[in-house]
């Protein structure tokens, strides 16, 4: 099996995430892509992040219609800050040694990779796939040769930050997030009153 792993805060998940995962799945002929919402994202300790359960449920809603996509609770259920190396260890334990893992990151996250915990083990556990993202330069962060593939994906200039700002300002988010996610945000009143 060849499984893609898309980690993120997903606050909220948007079409940029889904398009990137779909393109990587096609390019690498993946069996499936598992989305893994972060429990407590250590890079975002300085801002208010929505409850993990809301981010998990929005990810389930967004991926429900695509037979290639699944969602893992691994990071949501682990206490403490979320590190990619723990995510990959858990998924490796779940699927066994025969499954090849492809960890998907946008250009911005890939640039930060050398600051991640246990980068060497991350590279042993998964092949890294860096995807293009508007506003960011996609470059090999200088890891061991053959561990990273850079891939061009459809350019969608969408970010969760912008979606949150739009909700707060009363601006539309249709066509930026799946309809079910838009409904979920409205139903739960997410992002409305946030500084
Ligand atoms: P925020 O603005 O809150 O940081 P985000 O839009 O960057 O949200 P994350 O949950 O931080 O979303 O990102 C998860 C992963 O998806 C990261 O690897 C990120 O680089 C990637 N990603 C996010 N948006 C896009 C996009 N539009 N195109 C390609 N990759 C993306
Ligand atoms: Mg981000």
What would your notes on this structure say?
By secondary structure, this protein is of the alpha/beta class. Helices cover 37% and strands 16% of the residues. The protein has eight helices and six strands. A six-stranded parallel sheet has the order 3-2-1-4-5-6, with helices on both faces. α2 links the parallel β2 and β3 (69-71). α2 runs antiparallel to α8 (179-188) and α4 (84-95) runs parallel beside α6. The longest helix has 13 residues, at 15-27. Bound molecules: adenosine-5'-triphosphate and magnesium ion. Adenosine-5'-triphosphate (ATP) binds at residues 8-11, 16-17, 20, 105-106, 108-109, 131, 133, 156, 158-161.
Give the H and E element order: EHEHEHHEHHEEHH
Q: Strands of the biggest beta sheet: in what spatial order?
A: 3-2-1-4-5-6
Low-confidence stretches: none
| Extended strand count | 6
What is the overall silhouette? globular
Q: Using only CA atoms, what is the Rg? A: 16 Å
Largest beta-sheet details: 6 strands, parallel
Enumerate the distinct ligands. Answer: adenosine-5'-triphosphate, magnesium ion
The pLDDT mean sits at 94
Measured as a percent range, the helix fraction is: 25-40%
């Amino acid at each position: 099996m060849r499984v893609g792993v898309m980690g993120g805060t997903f606050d909220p998940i948007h079409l940029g995430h889904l398009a990137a995962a779909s393109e990587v799945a096609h390019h690498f002929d993946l069996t499936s892509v598992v989305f893994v919402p972060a429990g407590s994202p250590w890079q975002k300790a300085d801002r208010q992040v929505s409850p993990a359960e809301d981010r998990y449920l929005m990810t389930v809603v967004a991926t429900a219609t695509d037979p290639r996509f699944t969602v893992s609770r691994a990071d949501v259920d682990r206490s403490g800050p979320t590190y990619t190396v723990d995510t990959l260890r858990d998924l490796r334990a779940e699927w066994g040694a025969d499954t090849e893992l492809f960890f998907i990151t946008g250009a911005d996250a890939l640039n930060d990779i050398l600051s991640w915990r246990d980068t060497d083990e991350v590279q042993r556990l998964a092949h890294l796939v860096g995807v293009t993202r508007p506003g960011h330069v996609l470059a090999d962060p200088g890891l061991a040769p053959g561990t990273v593939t850079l891939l061009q994906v459809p350019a969608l200039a969408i970010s969760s930050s912008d979606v949150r700002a739009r909700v707060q300002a009363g601006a539309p988010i249709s066509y930026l997030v799946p309809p079910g996610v838009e409904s979920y945000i409205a139903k739960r009143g997410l992002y409305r009153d946030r500084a």
